[in-house]
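Internal ticket #5521
Category: modeling
Description: The requester needs a full-assembly model to guide mutagenesis choices. All entity lines are attached below as received. Residue total reported by intake: 335.
Assigned to: D.W.
Attached entities:
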Amino acid sequence: MPIRGRIEVNQLHCKGCELCVMACPQDVMALDMEHLTPKGYHPAQLVAEGCTGCAICAIVCPDAAITVYRETPQKTRATA
Amino acid sequence: MVMEKVVYQRPESLTDTVTHYCPGCTHGVAHRLVAEVLDEMGIREKTIGVAPVGCSVFAYNYFNHDYVEAAHGRAPAMATGIKRVRPQNTVYTYQGDGDLASIGMAEIVHAAIRGENITVIFINNAIYGMTGGQMAPTTLAGMKTTSSPLGRDVELTGYPVKMAEMLSTIDGAGYIVRRSLHNPVNIRKAKKAIRKAFETQERGLGFAMVELLSSCPTNWKITPQEALDFIENSMLPVYPLGDYKVHPELAGLRV
């Protein structure tokens, strides 16, 4: 199973500059053209399956608006 | 069962204040990298920053540690005073090219000559951002700005100043490098350089400066992504990235 991740975009900090959208290696991000942030920008969001939690969007984000999570598969351990 | 771990979150050294920077301005990236480095080194509580005049004039609102505001270009002089009085604190300045390379040229050069044990983060975006995109000392030859609408004429206004190369010739300097913020690879390298610049200060190895090639989409009048492409295609040939001076004690340091 491929590594799965997800992101949360802080609506207060995101300014819709699209740098994360351009940088995303999986090409699964886009601006949310249906909504505006309190500052009046279209925020970035995940639009498709396939996020790996690589955090490249967070690395290019000038406003530290993105929190990245990655799933860690738990090994089933036979412990006493 | 599937668990989740946090891969990246907003660094503790940044406050929750929304920055006034334009969308896509890499000042924010530079702020974030400094904040991440301070978090990783665990020195946030003892760090004192010195803010410049320019776009980053409100840096004191964005960093979650002590900050003072200097007069235009005088951040290195102010940092000198703070570091000499409080040598136990980590002191750094955060300056743009209008502040550091124009009005503050004397201060930065003499701070380096004296070998002041401070760290300088120098943002080079080849333009005066705050005042509306006028020509800066770092503006590229032929580059159009509001005060050079036909392009910078080097016969009339001289050539772009290369601060990293210049300061690397000074004996008091311990760590002088140039990095860029135009793509994820270079942002990672820039973070390592900032870490080393703070390690230089912690080890008392002299003056440290990291020059960061940065974008100004608003005043370059292009989109944020085009601005990053401009850095790569136009600024890198004039301002080559590299380590211009690294103190021998830092050579083997892995960060």
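Resolution: model delivered.
Comment from assignee: Chain B touches chain A at residues 1-11, 14, 16, 18-19, 21-29, 31-32, 35, 183-184, 187-188, 217, 223-225, 228 (CB under 8 Å).
Ticket closed.
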